[in-house]
Structures are given as C-alpha cells and as structure tokens.
Specification:
By secondary structure, the protein is mainly α. It is built from three helices and two strands; from the N terminus they run H-H-E-E-H.
Length: 87
C-alpha cells in the first residue's frame, strides 16, 4: 500500500493517527485486521470488535473493504510511487 491508499483507509475508518506509531493499536495493525475481516466476512450485520481494538460497524466494514479492493486494483497508484531515489 502506498501513502495514498493508506490515507484513504484512514479516512474510511476515521483514524487520524500515523500509519505506524509507538502507541497501542496502531493503524497498520488495524488495517491488517480490516483486511482479514474483509477476506473472511462479506457481510457484517452488527459492529464487531477484533484484535488491536479494531471496531467495524457495517458501514465501516463496507468502506474499509472498498478501499482495500480499490488499492488492490491500483486505484491509488503503485506502492512504487512511494519509493525515494537514493543518490
């Protein structure tokens, strides 16, 4: 995931923290939980709490899955877009 797709995920689920930080329940860990939930449950009918305190209401689940599918399809560009050229 590049910066654009990470930002889209944060917006979709309402997180403002940095992708990786020293605090508990970091966004990148919550993304992993969202990805797993999207991969295993097509429909969430009530809010579920999984690891890293990730809360997924039906609407949050749908938005997170939409971002994950769009990122996989390249809608936010390539992960290579974030590469920094070293000189």
């Amino acid at each position: 995931m590049n910066a654009r797709s990470r930002d889209a995920f944060r917006r979709a689920v309402g997180y403002s923290r940095e992708w990786r930080d020293d605090g508990p329940n970091s966004v990148h860990e919550r993304f992993a939980e969202a990805w797993a939930l999207c991969a295993t449950r097509l429909d969430v009918r009530q809010t579920v709490r999984v690891a890293y305190d990730y809360l997924a209401s039906p609407s949050v689940h749908a938005r997170a899955c939409n971002v994950i599918r769009a990122a996989a399809a390249g809608a936010y560009g390539s992960p290579a877009d974030d590469r920094v050229e070293l000189r």
